[in-house]
Amino acid sequence: MCGIVGYIGKNKRAKNVVINGLERLEYRGYDSAGIAFSNDNEIVIQKEEGRISNLKNNIDFNKKSNIAIGHTRWATHGVPSKDNAHPHKCNKITIVHNGIIENYIELKEELKKLGYTFNSETDTEVACALLDYLYKDKKNINLAIKEFQKLTKGSYAIGILCDDDLDSLYAIKKNSPLIIGVNDNENYIASDVPAILDFTNKYITLEDGEFAKITPYNVHVYDSFDEVVKEIKQFEGSIEDINKNGYEHYMAKEINEQPEVFKKMATIYIDSSSDNIISNMPDLSNYKSITIVACGSAMHAGLIGKNLIEEYGDIPVNVEIASEFRYKKLFINKDSLVIAISQSGETADTLEAIKIAKEKGCDTLAIVNVNGSSISRVVSKVLYTKAGPEIAVATTKAYSAQTTLLSFIAYSLAKNSNDKNKLSEISSFLNDLNKLPIQMREILDNEKYYKEIADHISKNNDIFFIGRGIDYALCMEGSLKLKEISYIHSEAYAAGELKHGTISLIDKGTPVIGIVTDKKIADKTISNIKEVKSRGANVIYITTDELSKNGDFYDIKITIPKTNALLQPLLTILPLQLISYHVAKNRNCDIDKPKNLAKSVTVE
Ligand code: G6P
């Protein structure tokens, strides 16, 4: 959601670096793009609605520039348009901004009284005018920035150019991500490391409240009063991690990476030589309750976790949508653990939810993918999912990595229980775990079959997913995956709840995907599948080889290998991801960048 890239350097490749960086950030989601660069010491701004390619076509790359800031905008205040696109310029100040200035209406009124006029509907143009006013008043950009931080409410990562000092690039941050890339004779700013990986893997993380003055040779970072010494970090992955590596889409690549991600996580978290077996896992057995806060697919992974932790760990688990959790009455206390799950570690609602949990005195744990992200820095304990950079907006490998960690947590709780039945159920866990990557690969290699199934349902307007318990949690993720990338209306329903309304939507030929992987409730779900089948539904029945039944209650059957119940969701999700992918492909959708969606949702 909104991408920022900035460059200052002796090598004068500002336009190329910024456009390349914006392309690398396309996955964050956007609907307009723009760039400001210096041309013989004068700032030139170019902006376009739509894709970066529209902008790129109009830029003269032959004329070199030593400083530029660029932006991809995901519309919040005002429609996607050239006027609303960033950068915004007001007299000597030019800015790009990610976040929301919450008090922009009051500020705008004040600025209007001072004679400022506005051409866009954005809060960013107000922020730009405010900075200009403060700069004129203080006659010093550092002081103007400090005052700006005091006067504004909300969240921001801002890249700033000042006409009077085009040998420096300025940046500030509060509650929105921003890093500074470090290189010889040139430095960068960016919303995320992939934006600069083509040029450097060294970076500095800017903290809330800090601002930076960046020249080609130096990076000076200040908190409210003093200059602070910042650690230069090195990105763990490589450029290969952010390329498609021969796949047509990032989503296809990321789906196929899941066996490797699982193997890597098992290596990190499972130590079969020790009594404890799960290494680096916090002991959760003393908590009276667990609350999981998350958004989107991360919340769906949380639902898998709830099923597994309650069943195998005997601890009650609430799963809360982070944006709801923030504004409701809470019944958590120091006996509760609050777990935030997030791929990006930057989702605004999840970040605020975990801060609230901390204020309430709860212990906090984060399951995040991005090292050093905001959520990981707020909590008392972090478990990293190690999925590597995920570029496609629709998550696949990060979701299964989150599910993997939750399964490991449930296993470690079950391992310490005295319940003989449970201990016997999990006794084959380590064996099953070793076989899992091979079973995952078998399913993925059967892609042709899922493509055929996708061909079967691509022309429909509505699809339903039904299941019970953990299968219902999988239905929710399968349904979200399908609707977000194929734009087909889809609903996930608890199978037993169907006849309380939704069954009236089932007509002849309506596709219904029924998931049956839990032995305890398999027959019940099959009865519900029969109810839709007898009303004409076109049933795709997904089950394990252990539970597989024949009969006339389905049209297509998908049989997946049986594994330990703690690991089964990691296999069941794969056909759902592949079917969604091929349905979206059949419908010529923009698979990696679905319309209106953003990968990293940094506004509430
Ligand atoms: C967006 C993405 C989803 C993701 C959700 C939460 O909506 O499109 O794929 O599940 O945000 O993101 P997070 O980074 O917190 O996991």
Entry keywords:
Glutamine Phosphoribosylpyrophosphate, subunit 1, domain 1, Rossmann fold, alpha/beta, 18 helices, binds 6-O-phosphono-alpha-D-glucopyranose, 604 residues, globular, 3 domains, 7-stranded antiparallel β-sheet
* Number of separate structural domains: 3
CATH level 4 superfamily of the largest domain: Aminohydrolase, N-terminal nucleophile (Ntn) domain
Major sheet description = 8 strands, antiparallel
Total of DSSP H or I helical runs spanning 4+ residues: 18
Rg calc? 26 Å
Strand order of the largest sheet: 3-2-4-1-10-9-11-15
Overall mean pLDDT: 94
Heterogens: 6-O-phosphono-alpha-D-glucopyranose
Q: Mind explaining what this structure looks like?
A:
Helices cover 35% and strands 23% of the residues. It is α/β, with parallel strands linked by helices and 604 residues long. The chain folds into 3 domains: 240 residues, 4-Layer Sandwich (Glutamine Phosphoribosylpyrophosphate, subunit 1, domain 1), CATH 3.60.20; 184 residues, Glucose-6-phosphate isomerase like protein, domain 1 (Rossmann fold, 3-Layer(aba) Sandwich), CATH 3.40.50.10490; 170 residues, Glucose-6-phosphate isomerase like protein, domain 1 (Rossmann fold, 3-Layer(aba) Sandwich). The strands form 4 sheets. It has an 8-stranded antiparallel beta sheet with strand order 3-2-4-1-10-9-11-15. Helix 8 links the parallel strand 16 and strand 17. The longest helix is centred in the last third of the chain and has 19 residues. The model has no long low-confidence stretch (mean pLDDT 94). It binds 6-O-phosphono-alpha-D-glucopyranose (G6P). The site of 6-O-phosphono-alpha-D-glucopyranose has 16 residues, from helix 8.
